[in-house]
């Protein structure tokens, strides 16, 4: 299995920071897709917490690490309402 898988997506910056910290603690390498472009177009993060043109920030991991990453993020995903991607 190759490629990358989205394991967390949110417009809530506290949840994103927490998810990144969890992945770093577990030593799971990730990409934060869309993080740098949230304020690039139009009104940025006005009402939804993320830019509606670019979508929420997505944390993506190698497919081989997806199951481990999802397990590590399980509690955060459930408590923040991001259990389904």
Sum up the structure in keywords.
alpha+beta; 85 residues; three-stranded antiparallel beta sheet; 2 helices; Alpha-Beta Plaits
Word description of this protein:
The longest helix is centred in the last third of the chain and has 15 residues. Helix 1 runs antiparallel to helix 2. This protein has one domain: Alpha-Beta Plaits (2-Layer Sandwich). It contains two helices and three strands. The mean pLDDT is 80. The chain has 85 residues and is an alpha+beta fold. Helices cover 33% and strands 20% of the residues. A three-stranded antiparallel β-sheet has the order 1-3-2, with helices on one face.
Rg (C-alpha, Å): 13 Å
Strand percentage, roughly?
15-25%
The coarse silhouette is globular
Question: For the record, what CATH class applies?
Answer: Alpha Beta
Question: pLDDT average, as an integer?
Answer: 80
- The appropriate CATH architecture is 2-Layer Sandwich
| Total DSSP E strands | 3
Q: Which structural class matches the secondary elements? A: alpha+beta
Percent range of helical residues: 25-40%
The stretches of 5 or more residues where confidence is low (pLDDT under 50) are none
What summary fits the major beta sheet? 3 strands, antiparallel
Cα-to-Cα separation, first versus last residue = 19 Å
CATH topology: Alpha-Beta Plaits
Q: Summarize this, please?
A:
With 85 residues, this protein is α+β, with helices and mostly antiparallel strands.
Topology:
Layout: E1 4-10, H1 13-25, E2 30-33, E3 57-62, H2 66-80
Antiparallel strand pairs: 1-3, 2-3
Helix pairs in contact: 1-2
């Amino acid at each position: 299995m190759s490629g990358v898988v989205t394991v967390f997506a949110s417009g809530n910056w506290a949840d994103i920071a927490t998810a990144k910290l969890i992945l770093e603690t577990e030593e799971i390498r990730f990409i934060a897709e869309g993080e740098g472009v949230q304020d690039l177009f139009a009104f940025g993060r006005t009402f939804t917490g993320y830019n509606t043109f670019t979508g929420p920030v997505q944390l993506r991991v190698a497919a081989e690490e997806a199951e481990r990453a999802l397990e590590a993020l399980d509690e955060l995903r459930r408590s923040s309402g991001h259990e389904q991607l």
